[in-house]
């Protein structure tokens, strides 16, 4: 069974919600965890039976590709690692940042490895995983450097610790490079977390978008994926029915039978 979560920000974007009600109903719909939840709501999520899966380590525009930011980012991410460890959050998300200078990838990869290595060591000691997220620079995050799987994979391999893995976001990578199944296979050992959303548009996982999410789910099961799949789309309609429909796409047909 693939463990599934949902992103708090995307399921509440532009909505007036009662947090305890949404968390309770999401759990009843089959979600096992919640991501990027504001800290005051952590006890509410735990009371609803939801795991606390991720939190964001720093702003995504200013990242570890910039050596001048390493000291400040390291302090900030270490604080968030400690908060995660104390609060029972499993992983902290980190970013390359937007391109700087001439925007070349090779020196940026080296800078990310250099800046992240000591922070990853801190995370490993704290029992928290760091996740480097792949984001599209085509639509949502212009200028973002880690906008291809190869960039993130080079950083993870360069750091060389199981405490740093890729956050493979299928929506972002569909926009940037497509070929999701082959890419997941090729980098499977480096992937620690998966995010979903319909592409294009970042909406529901339905027939109005182009990614075959049931096929991705089947591939992950075939490969023996043990991480989380987090749904990070903005529902067109009511959030809980949209979440329930997305969860169903990752259910194992054999278990359902």
Task: Give a written overview of the molecule.
The chain is an alpha/beta fold and 257 residues long. The chain has one domain (3-256): Divalent-metal-dependent TIM barrel enzymes (TIM Barrel). Helix content is 44%, strand content 16%. The protein is built from eleven helices and eight strands. Strands 1-2-3-4-5-6-7-8 form an eight-stranded parallel beta barrel, surrounded by six helices. Helix 8 (180-186) runs parallel beside helix 9. It is globular. The two termini are 13 Å apart. The model has no long low-confidence stretch (mean pLDDT 97).
Q: Name the poorly predicted regions.
A: none
CATH topology: TIM Barrel
* CATH architectural grouping: Alpha-Beta Barrel
- Work out the strand percent: 15-25%
């Amino acid at each position: 069974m693939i463990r599934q979560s949902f992103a708090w920000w995307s399921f509440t974007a532009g909505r007036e919600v009662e947090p305890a009600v949404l968390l309770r109903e999401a759990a009843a719909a089959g979600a096992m965890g919640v991501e990027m939840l504001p800290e005051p709501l952590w006890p509410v999520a735990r009371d609803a039976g939801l795991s606390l899966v991720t939190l964001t380590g720093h702003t995504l525009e200013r990242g570890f590709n910039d050596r001048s930011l390493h000291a400040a980012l390291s302090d900030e991410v270490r604080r968030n690692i400690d908060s995660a460890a104390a609060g029972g959050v499993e992983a902290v998300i980190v970013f390359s940042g937007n391109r700087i200078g001439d925007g070349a990838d090779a020196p940026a990869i080296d800078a990310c490895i250099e800046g992240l290595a000591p922070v990853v060591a801190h995370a490993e000691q704290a029992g928290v995983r760091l996740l480097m997220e792949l984001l599209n620079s085509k639509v949502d995050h212009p200028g973002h450097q880690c906008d291809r799987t190869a960039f993130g994979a080079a950083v993870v391999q360069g750091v060389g610790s199981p405490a740093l893995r890729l956050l493979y976001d299928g929506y972002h990578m569909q926009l940037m490079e497509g070929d999701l199944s082959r890419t997941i296979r090729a980098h499977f050992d480096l992937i620690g977390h998966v995010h979903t959303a319909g592409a294009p548009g970042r909406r529901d996982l339905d027939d109005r978008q182009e990614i075959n999410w049931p096929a991705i789910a089947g591939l992950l099961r075939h490969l023996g994926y043990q991480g989380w799949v987090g749904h990070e789309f903005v529902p067109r309609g009511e959030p809980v029915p949209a979440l329930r429909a997305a969860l169903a796409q990752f259910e194992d047909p054999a278990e359902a039978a």
